[in-house]
Amino acid sequence: MWRVVAVVPLVSTVALAAGQEGRAGLTLESAMALARARAPSVLAADTELRAEQASRVGATPLFARNPSLEGGAGGMLVPAARLRDWRDTTAGPTAFLGVAIPIEIAAQRWSRVAAVDARIAVRRANRDDAVREALFSVGEEFFRVLHAQRREQLAEETVAVATRWCAAIRARQAAGDASRLDVRIADAELATAEQALLAHRGAHHVAKARLAALLGAGTEAVQDVTGDLVPPTPLPSLEDALAHLAERADIRAVRMGRGAALREANVAAGNAFPSPTLKSYYQYWNREHALMATVEVPLPIFDRGQGEEARARARASGLAAEPDARLDRARMEVTQAWELARTLASLREVSSSRDDAMTLPADLEEQLRSHRVELATVLLAQRQVMQLRAEALDLQLLEAMARLWLDHASGVLK
User: Fold this and answer.
1) Average pLDDT, the chain
2) 47-51, 297-301, 321-325, 354-358: which has the minimum mean pLDDT?
3) 18-64+108-271+322-410 in CATH: which number?
4) Residues 68-74: contacts with CB within 8 Å, 24+ apart?
C-alpha cells in the first residue's frame, strides 16, 4: 500500500514505486506535502488553531480584571457654632485616593486556563482532521490525473495505430487491392480515435485543474504529474488497519470536545463563588492624614452562572456517546474499504494474467499490406486490445481509490 505519513506509519498512505521516485515532476508525496502546507481547508483550520492559542494569553494572568483607581477632592463645611475666632475657616479641604483590585478564589484561574487548553486541543484535532480530509481529496484527484494521463496516452497510441492503418489501406487502394469503402472505414476509425483523444485530453486538463485548486496552487504546479496507479506494497491485514482507529482525528476531536465542555462547566461553576475586591484608600482632611483598607464581597444569590454551567454540562452529556458511535461507524468503514481493496486487488491480478492479449502482433501492419489479413479483422483486433488496456487502467484506478479510502478510514493519512 502507498504510505505518505508525517509520523512513523503502521499502515501506509500512498507512496510511489521505486521506478518513479527519481523522476522529476509532481509525485504523490510532493502533492501531499503541498496539501499539508497550502490546502485552503488546512490553512483555515491553522488559522482557527492559532487564534485559539492566542486566546490563552488572556486566560493566564494572575488577575482576571484590571485594578481601578478612585479619587476625589472637595471642601468640608464647618458649622458656625464651632467657630472660635475670626481666624477659623468655615470649610476644611479634603481629598482621597484609592486603589481597588478584584481577586479570584476557588481555583477560578485554573479552571479558565484548563478550559482554554481544552479548546486548543479540540482545534488541534480539528486541524489534524482537516489535513486528513485534504490528503484524501488530493490523493483522489492525483489518481484521477494519473488515470486521465494514461488514458490520453492510450488514446494517442490508438490514433497513431489508426493512422498507420489508413496509410496501409491507401497503399493497397493505390495497388488496386482495396476499395474506396475500405478507405472510408479506415478514415472513420481514425476520426473516432482522434475524437476520443480530444475527450481524454479534456478530461486530463479538468483533472489537473481540480488538483491545482485542491492544492491552492497554479496549474503550472501540476503540469508534470508522475506516479503509479498500482500499489507497490501488499494489502495490510484488517487487524493492522483497525489498530489505531481510536486515534483518528475526527474521533479524537469529538472526545476532546466533551472534555472541553466539562472544562467550560467548571468555569461556570467557579463563577458561582464570590470574587472579592480589595480596596485601599488614602484620605486627607484639614492637615490630617488617614489610611483605610476595605473588602467588598458580592453575594452570589441570583446570578451564579447556573445557566452557563447547565448548558455546558448538557453539551458534555450529549457528546458522551458520540465517540463510541463514531468509532463503531469507523470500524465498519475500514472493514468495507478493506474488503473492497482486497476484491479489487484480486481482480487486478486476474487482469494482469491477460497482458499477452493486450498487445497487437508486431507484424500486423505488414500482414495488412501483404493482403494476409483484412481491414475489418485489423480494426476489430485494435478495438479489443485498446478496450482491454483501457479497462485495465480503470481497474487500477478503482484499486488505487480503494486503498486510499482504506488509509483515510483507518486514520493513517496525517
Assistant:
1) 80
2) 354-358
3) 1.20.1600.10
4) 68/99, 68/100, 68/101, 69/97, 69/98, 69/99, 70/96, 70/97, 70/98, 70/99, 70/100, 70/281, 71/95, 71/96, 71/97, 71/98, 72/96
